[in-house]
Amino acid sequence: QVQLVESGGGWVQAGGSLRLSCAASVSTSSVHFMSWYRQAPGKERELVAKITRDGVLFTADSVKDRFTISRDDAKNTVYLQMNSLKPEDTANYLCFANRWGNDYWGQGTQVTVSS
């Protein structure tokens, strides 16, 4: 079992920044990949960014050049640095991990961006 706990969400004005954290209950070096998703009311869940155990990155076009995913294996934590936030970034942000073929989700942290 892998438990994921997100933090760092909140309210911010457009143009501001937030850093989300996802703390894992296991060593992140043992996790094949970790991702951040987001889901806004009435919309489908969207993959925002992904980082593999080998450090390969993926960032969605909608957030490219604004969001950066990173991992600190010493702290078993994955981060999502979000800059130049826009109202359309408002959503519940969820952490995801895949380890040995099993999928795990966190509870999510809400991000609200006002115009």
Please explain how this structure is put together.
It is a single chain. This protein is an all-beta fold. The chain contains no helices and eleven strands. Strands 2, 4, 5, 6, 9, 10 and 11 form a seven-stranded mixed sheet that branches. Strands 1-3-8-7 form a four-stranded antiparallel sheet, with no helix packed on it. A hairpin with a 4-residue loop joins strand 7 and strand 8. The protein is globular. The N and C termini lie far apart (40 Å).
List the keywords:
mainly beta; seven-stranded mixed β-sheet; 115 residues; 0% helix; 11 strands; globular
- For the secondary structure, the number of strands is 11
What is the 3D form?
A: globular
Report the uncertain regions: none
Share of residues in strands? over 45%
Return the string of H and E elements.
EEEEEEEEEEE
Q: Main sheet?
A: 7 strands, mixed
The number of helices is 0
Q: State mean pLDDT (0 to 100 scale).
A: 96
Question: Pairing-aware structural class of the strands and helices?
Answer: mainly beta
What is the terminal-to-terminal distance? 40 Å
Give Rg in angstroms.
13 Å
Helix content: under 10%
Briefly, what is this?
This protein is mainly β. It contains no helices and eleven strands.
Topology:
Blueprint: E1 4-7, E2 10-13, E3 18-24, E4 33-39, E5 46-52, E6 57-59, E7 67-72, E8 77-82, E9 91-99, E10 102-105, E11 109-114
Parallel strand pairs: 2-11
Antiparallel strand pairs: 1-3, 3-8, 4-5, 4-9, 5-6, 7-8, 9-10, 9-11
